[in-house]
Design a protein that fits this description.
With 501 residues, this protein is of the alpha/beta class. Helix content is 26%, strand content 14%. The protein has 13 helices and 15 strands. The chain has a seven-stranded parallel sheet. Strands 10-11-15-13 form a four-stranded antiparallel sheet, with helices on one face. The radius of gyration is 24 Å and the shape is elongated.
């Protein structure tokens, strides 16, 4: 491999290692602060980074993985190396809330008591085809998948000796076991989402809680957090001991009045590390989609997690710690505007947006976790499946520019993004240029070979009168006549693989 840092390019190789509510949802109060808090974090981090140099210039990419002082700390984050390599996963929000079909926060949004919600439990009689779900994920190019083993409503999709409020007891179906078997069979790594909150439990805080369906309505209710913690820890132990090796455990979430102390987070971590030592965990035992918690510090708490989890946003500069070092992160994103099935929400993100956001995450050193919300019959919505099928077509040709890749350490070009990995640079071109394509950050003498990644065909450098005064910048010919303008071969994202001299 060439010494790519010497030409101003940092390359990482293959070894490098909650719901969006409708406006009347209580959690909308948190959602309104989400973008602002992440932006504030990035401003603080950027000020730390501003004085860090690489060679004789300021590094243009704050998440450059091979610059000194800004590499991923493998001693701390080595457990996530496979995950940082794979980059793209599927989130699955599914449960009895698919019956009312107004999102997974329906009980909280509509102040629905556990008795009023019982009709949804009774009507939830799905016949899911988990092999078909796994096929959707695999065809889209996703390498890992996470299922909601239990959401805030408390109705578990797994068998529990501690509760009868489970599909195993009500339907005789352990959907978690079925999901794990199908996805493992396809070679997809598996994870389980587990809500730290349980609105079905009489010992969980009701009246004074920020989000409970009965908040403000039951002044005589007395919570019993000792009892609740015992139950919570018991179910975590059941998931960690009864379902074989788990790759990811995704806990959700902390907020004012309910955090690490209330969850008994130290005991949760102890259980996970005892029974699932290789599993990676998110940061929400002390944070949420807006507050990353102590994972950004040099002295994180024992429950800080293995990665940050910004929700419905891609941070402007990725996620970096207060000391300027990169922190593993994953943006979780819905395909429409709800996590759980919502029959009225057919505002699907186009495949081009999903691809562009995946590329942006990788270019900033992060992952993308894209959600599907199967319906009450257990079917992934057609709109979701169509989008992911189109994403998969693009991934079939271009996954090499995603998996095992990360930031390139070059300025962001107007036409798209750079990613880097496997000893190569990848130019992700979203917008066709007028005339030849400027390879921002590269000189002509630094470029040995350019090929279109989708078919391996060589693409010549442009030598024409329109760029004759720019000997300091490499240009790529987009067609037979280099000074002419041409449409992109792939209108979603045309990827050029660049080998440096």
């Amino acid at each position: 491999m060439k010494n790519l840092v010497s030409v101003g390019v940092s390359i990482i190789g293959v070894s490098a290692p909650t719901p969006t509510p409708t406006p009347n949802y209580p959690r909308a109060q948190l959602q309104r602060t989400r973008n602002g808090l992440w932006e504030a974090i990035q401003r603080v981090s950027s000020s730390v980074m501003s004085g860090i140099k690489r060679g004789d210039r300021t590094c243009p990419q704050p998440l450059c993985h091979t610059c000194s002082m800004r590499v991923i700390d493998e001693d701390r984050f080595g457990r996530s190396a496979w995950w940082r390599h794979d980059r793209f996963g599927m989130f699955i929000h599914w449960g009895a809330y698919a019956v009312p079909a107004r999102g997974e926060w329906v009980r909280s949004a509509e102040r629905m008591s556990v008795e009023d919600y019982q009709y949804a439990i009774d009507a939830f009689r799905p016949e899911p085809d988990f092999d078909a779900w796994a096929e959707v994920a695999a065809s889209a190019g996703m390498r890992y998948a996470i299922l909601t083993a239990k959401h805030h409503d408390g109705y578990a999709l797994f068998d529990s000796a501690l509760s009868d409020y489970t599909t195993a007891k009500v339907l005789g179906r352990d959907f978690v076991a079925e999901f794990l078997a199908a996805f493992r069979k396809r070679g997809i790594k598996v994870g389980l989402y587990f809500s730290l909150i349980d609105w079905s439990r009489p010992d969980f805080p009701h009246h004074a809680d920020l989000h409970h369906p009965m908040r403000g309505a039951v002044p005589d209710h007395v919570p019993d957090l000792d009892s609740y913690r015992q139950f919570l820890h018991g179910q975590v132990r059941e998931l960690c001991s009864g379902y074989g090796p788990l790759d990811i455990l995704w806990f959700d979430f902390s907020y004012e009045g309910m955090g690490p102390q209330q969850w008994g987070a130290d005991e949760i971590v102890r259980i996970v590390r005892e029974l699932q030592p290789d599993a990676i965990m998110d940061n929400r035992m002390e944070g949420d989609g807006a507050n990353p918690g102590s994972i950004l510090t040099a002295t994180p708490s024992p429950w800080a997690g293995d990665f940050a989890s910004p929700e419905q946003i891609i941070p402007t500069q990725g996620v970096i710690g207060y000391d300027g070092s990169p922190v593993p992160w994953e943006s979780c994103m819905t395909l429409n505007n709800h996590w759980g099935y919502c029959a009225s929400d057919t505002v699907w993100k186009p495949a081009s947006m999903v691809v562009h956001k995946l590329v942006e995450c990788v270019a900033k050193g992060g992952n993308l976790l894209t959600n599907v919300g199967p319906d009450a019959r257990g079917r992934i919505p057609t709109g979701s499946a169509k989008v992911l099928d189109q994403v998969g077509t693009w991934m079939d040709d271009n996954c090499e520019s995603i998996r095992g890749c990360g930031p390139a350490g070059l300025p962001k070009p107007d036409w798209g993004w750079w990613t880097a990995g496997h000893g190569k640079l990848y130019a992700h071109v979203f917008e066709a240029p007028v005339g030849p394509l400027p390879l921002i950050g590269l000189r002509p003498d630094q470029v040995k070979l350019v090929r279109r990644l989708a078919d391996g065909s060589e693409v010549p450098m442009a030598q024409c009168w329109t760029v004759s005064d720019r000997n300091d910048l490499a240009f790529l010919s987009m067609g037979p006549q280099p000074e002419f303008s041409y449409p992109l071969p792939d209108e979603i994202d045309t990827v050029f693989e660049i080998t440096l001299a």
